[in-house]
Amino acid sequence: MLNGMASGAKEDDGETGGAEAGPGRGTGAGGAGGPGGAGGPGGAAASPGKARRAPAGAAVLREDVTEAIRAAVFAELAAVGYGRMSIEGVARRAGVGKTAVYRRWRSKLHLVLDLVSAIALQGLPAPDTGSLETDLHLLYEVASRALRHPAASQIVPDLFAEAARNPDLQEALEKALREAQRSVAQGVLDAAAARGEVRAALDRDLALDLITGPLYWRVLVVRTKTHRGYPAALAKTVAAGLRGA
After folding, report:
1. Are residues 63 and 165 in the same domain?
2. Which of 81, 106, 131 is the last residue of a domain?
3. 63-100 burial string, b = 16+ CB within 10 Å, else e?
4. Reduced to 3 DSSP states, what percent helix, strand and coil does the chain have, rounded to the nearest 5?
5. CB neighbours (10 Å) of residue 231?
6. Which string of DSSP letters, residue by residue, matches 171-236?
7. pLDDT for 147
8. Is 8 a residue whose pLDDT tops 60?
């Protein structure tokens, strides 16, 4: 995601066609090539054997510019936080004009949420080791490394603090982060129930809170460092609690 750094983009991004987009007029997360767009999932299918051609007058979005903007968002969030972040600042850091940003996202909120959603959905495994404890151990190892990343450790707490004052951000963050990661935990529980390690009638909401809550509390809320054996110890404790529930 961060491969297209700002140095690779120019103020004139070379995207041609289409009227200049502004706030409220952009294409939304991902632009014309994003989810649901002309080139993304849910978009119109191209005829077999024929090259897909952009509609007349539509802007052709360069992927290197998109990646430069995403990298700039990371840097801006880490430097000034969500509250002070601006489209102007992101565009300046990415080395593009504001129009290039608005072609892809309608607002600062949509830009940040697209990025958070992408982070939440990538990198988390769907463990299937044959054991509840080892499934949890694998999940915690990957999640703890991701949460310790400098970008995540700075950006995620700031976004949650801002969400307390911004209902739209709160709702979207819950969907992007909580639901995406709880879906992985749900798979762990389903597999454990199928193996007979936990009761089929187990309170799933409570169990999911138990699986996902402790690591986030330690790393993002009280911001306590985790020692090397913490993921294994947490997995053992949580698995024991779930088996006995």
Report:
1. no
2. 106
3. eebbbbbbbbbbbbbbeebbeebebebbbbbbbbbbbb
4. 60, 0, 40
5. 21
6. HHHIIIIIIHHHHHHHHHHHHHHHHTSS-TT--HHHHHHHHHHHHHIIIIIS-PPPPTTHHHHHHH
7. 79
8. no
Is the same domain home to 40 and 133?
no
Please give the Cα distance from 240 to 229 (Å, whole number): 17
Cα(68)–Cα(64) distance, integer angstroms:
6
* Domain hosting residue 127, numbered range: 123-244
Q: What is the DSSP string of 13-25?
A: ----SSPPP-TTT
Output the domain CATH number for residue 230.
1.10.357.10
Among candidate residues 12, 33, 153, the one with its CA nearest the CA of residue 91: 12
Q: Give residue-wise pLDDT tens across range 187-238.
A: 999 999 999 999 989 999 999 999 989 998 898 788 888 889 999 999 999 9
Q: Which two tokens stand for residue 170?
A: 């709160």
Question: Could you tell me the two tokens for 82?
Answer: 């969500």
pTM here is: 0.64
**Rounded alpha-carbon distances, angstroms, from residue 116 to 42, 152, 169, 201, 237:** 21, 10, 11, 33, 30
Most confident of 19-23, 158-162, 202-206: 202-206
Residues 138, 63 share a domain: no
